[in-house]
Amino acid sequence: MQGIHLILFIFTGISRDSRHKRSASGARRAQYRKKRKFELGRQSANTKLGGKRIHLVRVRGGNYKHRALRLEAGNFSWGSEGVSRKTRILTVVYNASNNELVRTNTLVKGAVIQIDATPFRQWYESHYAQVLGKKKATQAKIDEVEGAEKSKSQQKKLAERAATAAVDPLLDDQFAAGRLYAIVASRPGQSGRADGYILEGKELEFYIKKIKSKKH
């Protein structure tokens, strides 16, 4: 019939079973049953940077997953100092699995990101009474942090802390720029959070090399 267009939609669900795959020898397996609810898979969250938006997904056993669609901040720990702070996520800089996830600023577990250094710098300056990133710090800032009046007990406490106040030069450069490299350790599409830790030492050196090689 003229004027009538039939459109065929083929809905293929995401399945986690292995029955549809060929055997090790390459033979097709016989289909002895249809798909089951417990074999289902769901679309990836593809969590982006932006205002917080989390959807609840009802899953097996009446439990709920927190599907983060957009996130802008997370809790990050500074391992060598044993301190955690909530801070802003600025951008995704490296992902070992897929460059497309870097281009689209997609947050996944294992992604290397840049975070705002301000909360950690403020903690360091109040804890050690020393300026981080002195190369770019103004004299007024140095005088404000290090020249403030302190009681004798405070001076004694700060003198004891000074023994462990040294910071990795690579990390110090990042503090001067106001951005720190960190890794996402949580699963944003499952827990609805983008938490992680600041990169330091050998791990930081490794990822800086990787990031530089990607840019060339």
* Percentage of residues assigned to helices: 25-40%
Low-pLDDT stretches: 4-10
The major beta sheet can be summarized as: 5 strands, mixed, barrel
Order of helices and strands: EEEEEHEEHHHHEHEH
Q: Kindly estimate the percentage of residues that lie in beta strands according to DSSP.
A: 15-25%
Q: If you compute it from the alpha carbons, what radius of gyration comes out, rounded to the nearest whole angstrom?
A: 25 Å
Distance between the termini: 59 Å
Number of strands: 9
Helix- and strand-based class? alpha+beta
Tell the overall outline: elongated
Total of helices: 7
Mean pLDDT: 87
For the largest beta sheet, what order do the strands appear in spatially?
Answer: 4-5-7-8-9
In short:
This protein is α+β, with helices and mostly antiparallel strands. 28% of the residues lie in helices and 24% in strands. The chain has helices at 100-103, 118-128, 139-146, 152-161, 169-177, 188-191, 201-215; strands at residues 47-49, 53-58, 64-71, 73-78, 83-94, 106-107, 112-116, 179-184, 196-198.
